[in-house]
Amino acid sequence: MTDVLSEHLESHRRLLRALVWRVTGVAADADEIVQETYLRALTAPPPDLSRSLRPWLMRVAMNLARDRLRARRRRERYASWLPGPLVEEVATPDALVARAEGANMAWMRAAEALTPGQRAVLVLREVLELDVGETARALQMSPERVRVTHHRARQALLGAEARLPGAAHGPVQREQAEALLMRLLQAVGAGDGAEVRALLHEDVVMITDGGRRFRAAGVPVVGADKVTAVQLYFVAHSPPFLRFKAVSAADPWVSLERDPAGALWPTHVLVGVEVRGGKIAAIYSHMVPEKLAGA
């Protein structure tokens, strides 16, 4: 029975990982929660194994995800906190995993304004496209509470998106964003301030998440002139990056690596951008190891 159960569980792994990540915002948390969900299924499986395990797995995983989000918010509250991207090494046959809804950084940043319950309802209703009854069963809520929570979540999300500095709204060609990101990295590496400035939107925001462990801007930096100056300062005062590679996620990201450089500087940084009107509207830098899973 264990082999059969394990086979069924593996068929849902990547979907669960994508859904849980949209709730927690941290890929390492999603991996741990999916693993814990599977351990529960193996040690205390649902009584009826003749039916699909997906509803049971989602109920367990989403409960764990909401608990993890509450705990993370109590533990990690600082101005430059960023959700980490979900990096996928291979294409997935499950289209739900790769859906843009709730997968890009603008959505993830705005979703930080939601309660854990609102975030879970929004993910199941709008990403997985479950109906009210299915969502209610997955989250052990009444249908009426799901409807109210979904409405409030939508209102809160729209309000948060409107307030975010640098957030890009509407579709952007991925190729354009990737090209602008590579031009930015080349210009910063060359110390070309004029080129850096030319690539940036006037109200660009730069957020550097060092997790209080590494040297980073402690608050978001807003405005093209300030972002240019900070970018050039950091590249002039930090050890150089020796290796880089593009990584697969909803937004374009580049993984930068340097040789060990002491306690203040991380060996691995993940850089991503959002684009608006042909200019870079937001720059994100991740230094926290837990948020670089797979990068």
In words, what does this structure look like?
This protein has 295 residues and is an alpha+beta fold. It has two domains: 2-163, Butyryl-CoA Dehydrogenase, subunit A, domain 3; 174-291, Nuclear Transport Factor 2, Chain: A (Roll). The protein has twelve helices and six strands. The protein has helices at residues 2-10, 13-24, 27-43, 54-75, 95-98, 105-111, 116-127, 132-139, 143-163, 174-190, 193-199, 224-237; strands at 200-209, 221-222, 243-247, 253-257, 268-276, 279-286. A six-stranded mixed β-sheet has the order 2-1-6-5-4-3. Helix 2 packs parallel to helix 4 and helix 7 (116-127) packs across helix 9 (143-163). The longest helix has 22 residues, at 54-75.
